[in-house]
Specification:
about 65% helix; two-stranded antiparallel ribbon; elongated; 2 strands; mainly alpha
Length: about 240
């Protein structure tokens, strides 16, 4: 009886990830520029006198959140992706950039949460308008501009407060790394055979740490991600 050895090949996306990384910065900036222009046009149209309707106010709130995310992502993508060699430089890991990385992560996450909540509110507003057109109390809520604006403002205020555990979990961590004479980080695998001059240098990274990691996990996975999506499916 002969043993047959089957060769199993798994899908390896490492090469694709490395090749796509080189164009991701340019594509993302392009998307952000056109997306910002589109959101600005949406805001201009939806805020005209003829378009001042509760659902359009919610769409305006969504457009503002998306616009802020795209505008903030442009400098981040420019720094991280447009100069690949700089990612191995000590100048890429300064304290200032570590602080900005934390700001980028939290800013984008909070606005994404706001967008999800506004989408849920929009779905609820439309659901009430379609299924309960004869209910005067409910119809007054969804057709009243003041109550809609209050809902939008509260969303912009409450969502950042619910993300407090995330704020407390991300911290700037100081590390000592081996560098060459040009302040380029040297991989530990190549340090033994490295022929140049090596020295220790200080780098700063943004990492999850502290006592609120578990709490932030549940806030991120359940409150920010799972619950708004489930409510969108319901309505």
């Amino acid at each position: 009886m002969t043993n047959v050895t089957a060769t199993v090949r798994y899908c390896d996306l490492k090469e694709f990830a490395l090749s796509y990384r080189e164009v991701h910065g340019h594509l993302s900036i392009l998307v952000c520029v056109f997306g910002s222009i589109a959101n600005i046009l949406n805001i201009c149209v939806l805020t005209t006198k003829e378009m001042r309707w509760p659902t359009n106010f919610i769409l305006t709130g969504l457009a503002i959140a998306d616009l802020l995310v795209m505008l903030e992502y442009i400098p981040f993508a420019s720094h991280v992706y447009l100069s690949p060699k700089s990612r191995m430089s000590a100048d890429h890991f300064t304290y200032t950039w570590a602080v900005y990385t934390i700001f980028h992560a939290l800013f984008a996450q909070v606005l994404h949460f706001i967008s999800c909540c506004l989408t849920v509110i929009l779905a609820i507003w439309r659901y009430i308008a379609i299924t309960h057109p004869q209910n005067n109390k409910l119809w007054y809520i969804v057709s009243n501009i003041r109550s809609t604006v209050i809902s939008i403002v509260l969303t912009y205020l409450i969502c950042p407060l619910m993300c407090v555990p995330l704020y407390l979990s991300l911290n700037v961590i100081k590390r000592i790394r081996v560098m060459d004479d040009k302040n380029m980080l040297v991989n530990p695998k190549f340090q033994r055979n490295f022929t140049g001059v090596l020295h220790n240098g200080t780098v700063y990274t943004a990492e999850l740490s502290g006592d609120f990691i578990n709490v932030s996990f549940w806030v991120y996975s359940v409150v920010i991600k799972l619950r708004p999506r489930s409510e969108e499916e319901i309505f």
